[in-house]
Amino acid sequence: MLLIESLYTGDTPATEQLVLNFDARTKSRLRTQLASGEEVGLFLPRGTILRGGAMLESKDGRIVEVVSAPEALVEARCASALELTRAAYHLGNRHVAVQVCDNALRIQQDHVLEHMLEGLGARLTRLDAPFEPEAGAYAHGHHHSERGATEARIHVMGGAA
User: Fold this and answer.
1) Which run of H or of E encompasses 104?
2) pLDDT at 137
3) DSSP tag of 158
4) Edge-first strand listing for the sheet containing 55-58
5) Which of 27, 28, 31, 87 has the fewest CB neighbours in a 10 Å radius?
6) Among residues 38, 68, 98, which one ends one of the domains?
């Protein structure tokens, strides 16, 4: 099994691809397969969120490109910026991963959230596309521990801040 423990920032082009949906790209420990079918084990630093286009280096020196797999999404469009802002607020209030697009929001398909968005006046379109949600202000484990251990923390897409 190919072992990957680090991100790669050099100029060497990738020779392999790792195609993952968003949920898999939020896991720092994962057993999966390269596009070629070769088995791979990811052991990345906790809290790592892989984005499409990210490069990884395997223990044997191969460079692996992360590819965002298409997945079942819903795109919400609204008649006004106010309605779109309201929809974004309600999704954020539920700690939902959201991809911000040009005049639209994308989320993973969820019938409860879709019903809520329709109730807020959004027009919904189902599509299969790569999902690249916003990381958020707390994506890198940011918190204010000086305020005390009882402070509420924001949890971002599978990782605790």
Assistant:
1) strand 104-108
2) 59
3) T
4) 16-20, 63-68, 55-58, 2-7, 39-43, 29-33
5) 31
6) 68
User: In 10 A of CB 159, how many CB atoms?
Assistant: 17
- Residue 153 reports pLDDT greater than 80: no
Burial class (CB in 10 A: 0-12, 13-18, 19+), 146: exposed
The residue type found at 57 is E
Angstrom distances, CA of residue 123 to CA of 73, 119, 160 = 14, 10, 32
Number of structural domains in the chain: 2
pLDDT number for residue 138: 52
- Phi-psi domain of 23 (left: phi exceeds 0; alpha: psi -120 through 50; beta: other): alpha
Distance (Å, rounded) from C-alpha 143 to C-alpha 4?
29
Do the bridges between strand 159-160 and strand 155-156 make them parallel or antiparallel, or are there none, so unpaired?
A: antiparallel
Q: How confident is the model at residue 135 (pLDDT cuts 50, 70, 90)?
A: confident
Structure tokens at 65: 């490109």
Residue that is last in its domain, among 39, 68, 97: 68
Q: Rounded to whole angstroms, how far apart are CA atoms 7 and 47? A: 13
